[in-house]
Amino acid sequence: MISSLFKSAAPLARGLAVAAAAAWVATLVACAASSTTELDKKFGDSVRAIREQQIIAAPALQRQDPVAGLDGVAAVHAQERYQDSFKEPAKTFDMLSSGGTGK
C-alpha cells in the first residue's frame, strides 16, 4: 500500500517540478524581453541638468580680463593665514567656571 502511494505521488511531484520550471523560464523570458529603451533615452539627463544649474555665469568662461580683487601677494598671505588657523584648536571659554581663581 505504501509503495502505491509513492507511485501515485511521483507523477504529481514531477508535474509540479515541470510547472515550477516552466514558470521560472517564463519569468526569465519576460525579464529578458522587457525593453528599457525609454529609460536609456533619458539616462544621465538629471545629472546634466543639475550640473548646468550649478553654473552661475556661463559667459564668464569666455571672458579673458583679469579678476578684480586681491593681488597675488595678498592672496598668498590670506591663504597662509587660513591654513595656519587649523594648526591649533579654536580657543573657547569654560562656561562652568565662575571666572574666579578658586581661592
Q: Can you walk through the features of this model?
A:
This protein is mostly helical and 103 residues long. The chain is built from four helices and no strands. It has a domain at 9-36. The protein is 57% helix and 0% strand. The mean pLDDT is 77.
Low-confidence stretches: none
Based on secondary structure, the structural category is mainly alpha
Write down the overall geometry.
elongated
Per DSSP E runs of 2 or more residues, the count of β-strands stands at 0
Describe the largest sheet: none
Number of helices: 4
Rg over CA atoms, rounded to whole Å, is: 37 Å
How far is the first residue's CA from the last residue's CA? 102 Å
Mean of all residue-level pLDDT scores: 77
Helix content: 55-70%
Approximately what portion of the residues adopt beta-strand conformation?
A: under 5%
Following the backbone from N to C, one meets helices and strands in this order, namely HHHH
